[in-house]
């Protein structure tokens, strides 16, 4: 098996691998394909969950054969490897017997591997002048991106791409959008520009932040650009009262429990779509005290404890949103090399989710909190 995986990946003849019959019953199936990130080859595995989530994981090409081999039997009972030179099927029986049916020919034509950042993902032009990007210092007056702002430009574009996939609003509707903990408001301007300029929609957007000087600056930029529906409000998001039910709530890197306040405000106000990128996870680090000693091996190492708490915090946020009637996906915002704060939580309200389904998710949430010995802020405010 290892040699097969090495051959199809190193020779770049792999079209895709379908990983089926998962051991984890929450997974429907997974699909793996080769991609290129910064001219380096990766195997991207996208897993589809029973609750509608789709989570991607990228593995360096040289590490992928070993990783796939370990998955056989332990994570998936069947793999179908589809290449330019034929197919191979790997099956594991109920008794653990592995059968490999290799029909991949020796002579094969290598595939052209697509880049992770495809042109169609670039909603904002990388070469043409865009008014708000000039005013915010991301581009010059001719449309050239400043070198130090390339990461910010990628981040904005990726956010808009993920937004466009989730925000299928009626073109004739006047949208009401919130940006909570907006900061310097790169995303506020980008989201407003996207809906008004690129999609031709009417928008009223309220952006809230504690920093009065930043709000004053953003208000001046908005007025200069003639963005009449873009409002900046200085104040605590706890005290902010939306004008009406939001169609969309966004937030970028609200620190620690500020993300929880954003999510709670969005849920309580009935927001149809939520996009939030968490930041600076501290709360669970100070609380976690699991029952028993099964986690001691990991929690005794500070850096691993922090990584566990980061992932557990965002996983619980997703679960709470599901308990509140949303379809939720956890996505990668941009390359982790650009920033470690690259998880985006995207939630779409689903009125077809039953109370029984919500209660089941809430019971699961409470059981996990109890097992970890934590009392999350989000739990208390929702």
Put simply, the count of helices is 12
Q: Give the averaged pLDDT, no decimals.
A: 89
Second CATH tier, the architecture of the largest domain: 3-Layer(aba) Sandwich
Please identify which CATH superfamily of the largest domain we are dealing with.
Answer: Vaccinia Virus protein VP39
Give the termini separation. 49 Å
Order of helices and strands: HEEEEHEEEHHEHEHEEHEHHHEEHH
Any overview of this molecule?
- Helix 1 (2-10) runs antiparallel to helix 2 (64-71).
- A seven-stranded antiparallel beta sheet has the order 4-3-2-1-5-6-7, with helices on one face.
- It contains twelve helices and 14 strands.
- The relative contact order is 0.09.
- Strand 3 and strand 4 (54-60) form a beta hairpin.
- Helices cover 35% and strands 27% of the residues.
Give the topology, please:
Layout lengths: L1 H9 L3 E9 L4 E11 L2 E10 L4 E7 L3 H8 L4 E8 L2 E7 L5 E5 L28 H5 L14 H17 L8 E6 L5 H13 L4 E7 L2 H14 L4 E5 L13 E8 L1 H12 L4 E7 L3 H5 L8 H4 L2 H22 L2 E7 L10 E7 L5 H18 L4 H5 L1
Helix pairs in contact: 1-2, 10-11
């Amino acid at each position: 098996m290892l040699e097969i995986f090495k051959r199809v990946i190193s020779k770049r003849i792999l079209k895709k691998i379908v990983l089926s019959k998962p051991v984890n019953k929450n997974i429907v199936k997974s699909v793996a394909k080769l991609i290129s990130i910064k001219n380096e080859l990766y195997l991207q595995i996208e897993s589809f969950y029973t609750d509608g989530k789709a989570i991607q994981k990228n593995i360096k090409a040289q590490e992928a054969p070993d990783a796939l081999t370990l998955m056989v039997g332990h994570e998936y009972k069947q793999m179908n490897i589809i290449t330019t030179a034929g197919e191979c099927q790997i099956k594991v029986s109920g008794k653990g017997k592995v059968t490999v049916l290799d029909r991949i020919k020796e002579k094969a034509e290598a595939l052209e591997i697509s880049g992770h950042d495809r042109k169609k993902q670039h909603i904002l032009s990388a070469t043409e002048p865009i008014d708000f990007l000039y005013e915010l210092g991301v581009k010059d007056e001719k449309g050239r991106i400043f070198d130090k702002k390339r990461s910010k430009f990628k981040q904005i574009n990726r956010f808009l791409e993920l937004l466009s996939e989730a925000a299928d609003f009626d073109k004739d509707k006047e949208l009401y959008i919130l940006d909570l903990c907006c900061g310097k408001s790169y995303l506020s301007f980008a989201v407003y520009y996207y809906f008004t300029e690129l999609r031709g929609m009417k928008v009223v957007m309220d952006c809230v932040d504690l920093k009065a000087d930043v709000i004053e600056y953003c208000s001046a930029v908005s007025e200069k650009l003639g963005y009449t529906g873009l409002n900046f409000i200085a104040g605590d998001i706890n005290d902010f009262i939306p004008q009406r039910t939001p169609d969309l709530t966004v937030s970028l890197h609200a620190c620690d429990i500020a993300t929880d306040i954003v999510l709670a405000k969005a849920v309580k106000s009935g927001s149809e779509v939520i996009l939030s990128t968490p930041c600076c996870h501290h709360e669970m680090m100070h609380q976690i005290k699991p029952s028993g000693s099964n986690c001691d091996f990991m929690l005794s190492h500070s850096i691993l404890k922090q990584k566990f708490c980061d992932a557990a915090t965002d996983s619980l946020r997703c679960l709470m949103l599901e308990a509140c009637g949303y379809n939720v996906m956890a996505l990668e915002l941009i390359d982790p090399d650009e920033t470690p704060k690259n998880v985006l939580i995207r939630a779409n309200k689903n009125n077809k989710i039953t109370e029984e389904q919500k209660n089941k998710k809430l019971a699961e949430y409470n059981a996990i909190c109890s097992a970890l010995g934590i009392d999350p802020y989000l739990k208390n405010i929702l």
